[in-house]
Write a structure and sequence with these properties.
Distance between the termini of chain B: 80 Å
Strand order of the largest sheet of chain A: 3-2-4-5-6-11
Mean pLDDT of chain A: 85
Helix content of chain A: 40-55%
CATH superfamily of the largest domain in chain B: PAS domain
Shape of chain B: rod-shaped
CATH topology of the largest domain in chain A: Rossmann fold
Structural class of chain A: alpha/beta
Number of domains of chain B: 3
CATH topology of the largest domain in chain B: Beta-Lactamase
Oligomer: heterodimer
Helix content of chain B: 55-70%
Largest sheet of chain A: 6 strands, parallel
Number of strands of chain B: 16
CATH superfamily of the largest domain in chain A: Response regulator
Strand content of chain B: 15-25%
Distance between the termini of chain A: 92 Å
Mean pLDDT of chain B: 85
Largest interface: A-B, 40 and 52 residues
Shape of chain A: globular
CATH class of the largest domain in chain A: Alpha Beta
Order of helices and strands of chain A: HHEEHEHEHEEHEHEHEHEHEH
């Protein structure tokens, strides 16, 4: 029965074929077949779209530095990195303010327990927390910005600040009239030492007759301390103070405004705080680091270890400058020197 | 079984006319082309619109989930600040009670209850009073409250916080008013290493409202699921507590995306886009839209495309038929005219409107051709009339004259015979000669009318006839001397005959001879034809070589490869000799 059917169907189709062949010219027949085939191909190609599709959403936790959001500097730069990462890679992020040790660790543990894809600590103040949490949760990826710490699941991002500060030193030496410039650091830590060395070498590179005054405030979060030190340096004849003191630096800017001398901004654009007194800044681009780390996690290339960001990696950038204080020719010289540093023609020596 | 008409029509295909074939194929190709275009648009449009809808819904889900994430984040952040505050207050229970009261009063809508435990499961403080009684509450009332039994969830959250740190419970709904709440428990470290845990009952109505408000279109809703896939927020309360469809597994695993499934309760196909909230809650947000609504623009586009397709097909078909008609009508007209000419033989022009294209050129050329044919036909008729006239003249000149002479003699012959029988006999001989001449003349003329006879007849016979014809006409005796027998090819025979004819004609017209001689002799492969007369002759030096038909004679001779020579002197007659060698 079944076989009979097949035979019948076969016979019928064969008949049709023969009929078509004899009733239409040969060429036309093959052309018809070709048109039909192309037609079916197009339809089958166009008809299939995906019915479901998914992409992973990364969870990023971040513990901010002691300055907190709104510091117009380091932490805001980190936050801006998170926002950019959200646009670029579709992430969900949470930030936690820096508080006491127990609280910080508790926040990091909450991130880790909820299996965040990346947990970032901003600034040296989070070094111990991150190290502790990373030890506790060895399968969670941690990152530490601006300071290094060992660990199989920790990526440390440090900056070659001295490259930017060298250029700021050059700039200060070009702009000073009293031939005395100052630098005030937040705390006596590696980072600030590098900044100081870079700045000093930059000043010397430009003009060996310019003297450099150095002070360390001992805190990153006390503007008053900054102001006191700054006023003292201005009194000693300095007319430009390089500001490397985080929130403490707000006091330096205040002092510059009062004495109508000059200072520089820290990581963020702080010209608005004292228009005419803030020359400009060389932001440490935490956002670059955050985006870089997020991309690594997204693409699965995240590796523990130290990454160093400088002018070349856009980890340190120059400006924006106060155009009335820094002329185009000065900026061009800075850009030339920047290219020389990137190219290795200028080497800045740092002790650590 | 009846065979469908289209099959019958197709079977006749090879016999179909040009117009039908052209129309069939043009329409066929046109309809196929338009259909391919329309379907391509339809399918591309379908995919595009669907993808657009899906990705838009994913973005909406993403935005809502980020919003929820930010809200939870800020709740957590506030709770942290509060716990830092409690830590700072140290072990002073009174001031802590005061702070807790202040917190509740600051935002009674958000912090519905606060529990404060030590590290050994003892509830030190609790504040779950209603908004109304809060206002009159004093710190002492809180401190010296009798112990209460707290919810198991509170205990569980407390214990988690004590052992692992800050913890956030699942979502619960309060008894009567079904308000969504979650518990946040935070460990505190007081000075001296003393640990405490604060548990806040957080009302999530704000967050839920935001989710419920995120609607799109008529059927698009947003709902939220817990870490376990249970629906925790849904515009329709009946859905809360149900398990989300299994298609949502990627969402629970932290993925964002879209899918399609049949909504199990309403039994409708839906498009669902989902996005994880992230953060410590593990929730997910789903944007669900009925497939029919999402497909609506597609259906609208489809209707437009199909109507465009149909109208294009109809307009195109009508256009093709009209165009083919305008092209093929003149050709058909031409065909009909040609057929009429072929059947009736009457030359008729198409007289069609002059078109500038090839069809117009064709009919114009046809008309020109007909015109030429008409001219040629007219000329042929004239030529035939001329030929008839010439024949009549020849008959009149030669045969009629001869026969007239013969009849005159025959009339007087009986009387003459009586008077002078000798003269009579002579005259009779003359009549005989005249009638023979006329007969030969007639035959010669008939030969001219029927050239085929020339080919059939033998050369000696032809030459004799020619001689008789000439002597009959001119009364000049022509002596024949033919030796032997030979068969020639028709070309040679006709050429020799024509040469002899021309030569004798010359004799008759010009020579004024008393006698002419024609001799044909064969000598092995050589044939010699001589025509000699004793007429007045002519001066060969003063005569152009091609006059007197001499040129034609030479031509004929050279055509068959024969040699022609002529000898003549004034008063001494003329001799023409043709020598044809069979083996040239």
């Amino acid at each position: 029965m079944y076989a009979e059917n097949i035979f019948n169907i076969g016979g019928l189709s064969w008949d049709m074929k023969r009929f078509l062949r004899f009733s239409l010219p040969e060429k036309v027949f093959s052309r018809l077949i070709a048109i039909g085939a192309i037609f079916l191909l197009i339809i089958s190609l166009l008809g299939c779209g995906p019915v479901s599709q998914q992409s992973s959403v990364l969870k990023i936790g971040m513990i901010l530095g002691s300055g907190g959001l709104g510091d117009r500097s380091f932490n805001d730069s980190a936050y801006s990195g998170l926002l950019q990462a959200q646009q670029k890679f579709n992430v969900r992020f949470d930030t936690v303010d820096f508080a006491n040790q127990d609280s910080n660790l508790d926040a990091l543990r909450l991130f880790a327990r909820n299996r965040y894809d990346l947990i970032i600590g901003i600034g040296f103040e989070n070094q111990t927390n991150i190290a502790a949490a990373a030890k506790e949760f060895p399968d969670i990826r941690f990152a530490l910005i601006d300071v290094t710490t060992p660990g199989d699941n920790i990526a440390s991002v440090v900056y070659r600040e001295h490259e930017g500060d060298f250029l700021m030193g050059v700039l200060a030496a070009m702009l000073t009239k009293t031939k005395i410039v100052g630098i005030i650091g937040g705390m006596d830590i590696e980072t600030i030492k590098r900044i100081e060395e870079g700045f000093t070498q930059g000043v010397a590179y430009q003009d060996s007759n310019v003297a450099v005054l150095r002070d360390i405030a001992g805190t990153f979060s006390d503007p008053q301390a900054g102001k006191t030190l700054a006023l003292a340096q201005y009194a000693k004849g300095a007319d430009i103070i390089h500001n490397a003191a985080g929130r403490t630096g707000l006091g330096i800017i205040e002092a510059a405004r009062e004495t109508t001398k000059y200072t520089t901004g820290t990581s963020g654009d702080q010209r608005y705080l004292a228009p005419g007194n803030v020359i400009g800044n060389r932001p440490k681009r935490v956002d670059t680091a955050v985006i870089m780390l997020t991309e690594e996690v997204k693409t699965g290339t995240f590796k523990a270890g130290i990454r160093s960001l400088g002018l070349k990696e856009n980890g340190i950038t120059l400006g924006p400058f106060d155009e009335s204080l820094v002329s185009k020719t000065v900026q061009n010289r800075l850009d030339d020197l920047k290219q020389k540093i990137i190219g290795g023609q200028i080497v800045i020596r740092v002790s650590r | 079984m009846r065979v469908p008409r289209i099959i019958l029509w197709l079977r006749q295909w090879p016999n179909r006319g040009l117009r039908q074939k052209l129309v069939f194929w043009s329409i066929g190709f046109w309809v196929v082309a338009v259909s391919i275009m329309s379907l391509a648009f339809l399918f591309v449009g379908r995919t595009e619109i669907l993808n657009e809808t899906r990705h838009r819904n994913v973005k909406i889900a993403s935005v809502v989930s980020r919003d929820v994430n930010v809200q939870i984040s800020s709740i957590l952040s506030d709770a942290r600040t509060f716990s830092r505050h409690l830590e700072a207050l140290g072990t002073d229970l009174e001031s802590q009670a005061s702070a807790i009261l202040a917190l509740r009063l600051s935002s009674p809508q958000r912090y519905r209850a606060v529990y404060y435990f030590d590290s050994k499961d003892n509830l030190l403080l609790h504040l779950e009073d209603t908004q109304g009684s809060l206002i009159t509450l004093k710190v002492k009332d809180i401190i010296f409250r009798p112990p209460v039994t707290v919810d198991e969830v509170v205990i569980a959250t407390y214990r988690t916080a004590r052992s692992t740190g800050t913890s956030i419970s699942d979502v619960y709904f309060t008894g009567i008013d079904r308000i969504p709440v979650a518990y946040i428990a935070m460990p505190l470290t007081l000075s001296g290493g003393i640990t405490r845990v604060a548990v806040l009952q957080i009302e999530l109505r704000d967050v839920w409202q935001r989710i419920h408000l995120s609607t799109l279109g008529e059927s698009g809703i947003t709902y939220a699921v817990s870490r376990q896939g249970t629906i925790i927020a849904h515009p329709e309360p009946a859905y809360v507590g149900r398990q989300a469809p299994s298609e949502m597994e990627p969402l629970l695993a932290g993925y964002e995306g879209f899918t399609e499934y049949d909504e199990p309760f309403k039994q409708r196909a839906v498009f669902a886009s989902y996005s994880p909230v992230g953060g410590p809650t593990g929730w997910g947000v789903i944007v669900e839209q009925e497939a029919s609504e999402a497909m609506a623009p597609l259906i609208r586009t489809g209707i437009i495309i199909i109507s465009i397709w149909l109208s294009l097909a109809v307009v195109g078909t009508v256009g093709i038929i009209a165009m083919m008609r305008s092209f093929t009508m003149p050709i058909m007209e031409l065909t009909r005219t040609a057929q009429t000419i072929a059947q009736t033989g009457e030359l008729a022009k198409t007289l069609m409107e002059q078109r500038p294209d090839e069809v117009g050129q064709l009919s114009h050329a046809f008309d020109e051709m007909i015109e030429r044919l008409q001219t040629t036909e007219g000329r042929l008729a004239t030529a035939a009339a001329e030929e008839r006239n010439r024949l009549a003249r020849d008959l009149h000149d030669a045969v009629s004259q001869t026969l007239f002479s013969a009849s005159l003699i025959a009339e007087v012959l009986p009387r003459l015979w009586e008077r002078n029988p000798e003269e009579g006999r002579r005259r009779l001989e003359e009549v005989r000669q005249l009638t023979r001449g006329a007969l030969a003349e007639m035959r010669t003329l008939l030969l001219e009318l029927r050239p085929a006879a020339l080919v059939e007849a033998e050369l000696p016979h032809l030459l004799r006839q020619l001689g008789e014809s000439i002597s009959g006409r001119t009364r000049v005796p022509v002596t024949m001397s033919i030796e032997g027998d030979y068969s020639f090819s028709p070309e040679v025979k006709v050429a020799l005959y024509r040469i002899a004819q021309e030569a004798l004609n010359n004799v008759a017209k010009h020579a004024n001879a008393r006698e002419a001689k024609v001799s044909l002799s064969y000598e092995s492969d050589k044939v010699t034809l001589k025509i000699i007369d004793d007429g007045k002759g002519f001066d060969m030096t003063s005569l152009p070589s091609d006059s007197l038909g001499l040129g034609i004679m030479r031509e004929r001779a050279s055509d068959i490869g024969a040699l022609l020579s002529m000898q003549s002197k004034l008063g001494q007659g003329t001799e023409i000799v043709v020598i044809w060698d069979r083996i040239p």
